[in-house]
Amino acid sequence: MDAAPSPKPTVFLIEECANPSTDFFILPALLASDCTIVRCRHDDVPDRAALTDAIVVFVRYVPTAWARLISACRTNLRALVFFMDDDVLDFAASAGMPLSYRYKLAKLALRQRTWLRREQARLWVSTPYLLEKYATWQPQLVLPTPTAFPEGIRRIFYHGSIATHKAEIRWLRPVLEDVLHKDPQAVFEIIGKKDVFELYRGLPRVTVVHTLKWPAYQAFLAMQERHVGLNPLLDIPFNRSRSYTKFFDITRCGAVGVYSPDSTCAAVVEHQQHGLVVEADPAAWAAAILSLTQNDALRQRLWRNAQAKLLALTVAAQSHYADLLTHCHTDTHGD
Which residues of 153-180 are buried (b: 16+ CB within 10 A; e: fewer)? Predict the structure, then answer.
């Protein structure tokens, strides 16, 4: 009588954060085996009992808390694996790298080299070079698989300058936290420097673009499709002199805008016709943004209307330019 097949193992995948090493190498390999995958960050340490008959895979690094846990229950594991796609177990290999990065490698990888051998970890590597260099470990080669880009991405952006819109950048932070939590297809793009990066670093799918000169910014706007543009203007004296040019930028790059009331943009944008005009309430702004990211028909209708409005404003401006020149030609100065 044939023995019953072994049940599919549970694999605890230990990674510092979402990263290309996991996505290119480890996830495809694990998914091909049809196992149960539990992804853990370095500080997600389970109860010892949860690891019984499990496979534990460390991606690049071995955090101390996990090393202690594995040492306490190694005999209960089905297997222990360490994967590296850089030569993180040889300090000399990182010569020339920043000291902070070398310290990280020494702390989370190199320091655990002896521990990995003692605990009889299997070594998985990414290249023939590493396969040959660590031949005494009897490593296994893991081939990469290309990752698929996320589908249905909706790009939200705010391009206010940190020099003049620090208040709006801070105001938008909880708004985007709500939106990005509720819509996994939403991504956010904002312009700024280190302070903006630090403010938004805890949010997923946020890109902080370094401040651009005007010609570079114009080229940047034309490079990618965008879906929702944000133009919050808080009621401060500096904002009262603003024109409605942000309506131009938002519409030209294919997006529909969410605008503050009593602003110059709101003077040319009719709510639910050319965009959305929303009171300065974070929950209301989050709901407005989500209505655009999650309703393509609504967004496309508003954008077509916004294009028509942009054309009408262009025609009006050109007529005004002719009047300006006429006044210049007839201007006289008295004594």
Answer: ebbbbbbbebeebeebbeebbebbbbbb
CB 303 within 8 A of CB 333: no
The residue type of 68 is: R
Strands 256-259 and 276-277: parallel
**Assigned token pair, 165:** 């819109």
78-95 average pLDDT score: 95
- To the question of domain 10-141 being in CATH 2.10.260, the answer is no
Whether pLDDT at 81 is above 80? yes
Report yes or no: 38 and 83 within 8 Å, Cβ to Cβ.
Answer: no
The verdict on pTM exceeding 0.90 is no
- Dist. CA 292–CA 230, nearest whole Å: 12
Give Cα separations from 30 to 10, 53, 109 (angstroms).
10, 16, 22
Q: What is the CATH number of domain 154-319?
A: 3.40.50.2000
For the record, the structure tokens of 48 come out as 């010892």
Question: What pLDDT, on the 0 to 100 scale, is given for residue 150?
Answer: 80
Q: Answer positive or negative: Cα dihedral of 242, 247, 252, 258.
A: positive
Structure tokens at 78: 């089905």
Phi, psi torsion values for 101, nearest 5 degrees:
-70, -40
Average pLDDT over residues 207-220: 91
Rounded Cα–Cα distance for residues 212 and 287 (Å): 30
Write the pLDDT tens digit of every residue in 149-170: 888 899 999 998 877 789 999 9
- 10-141 and 154-319 in the same fold: yes
Sign of CA dihedral 133, 137, 140, 146: negative
The pLDDT of residue 331: 56
**What pLDDT score does 149 carry?**
80
Residue 329: pLDDT band by 50, 70, 90 thresholds? low
Tell me how far apart the alpha carbons of residues 27 and 37 are, in angstroms, rounded to a whole number. Answer: 9
138: helix, strand or coil: coil
The domain spans of the chain are 10-141, 154-319
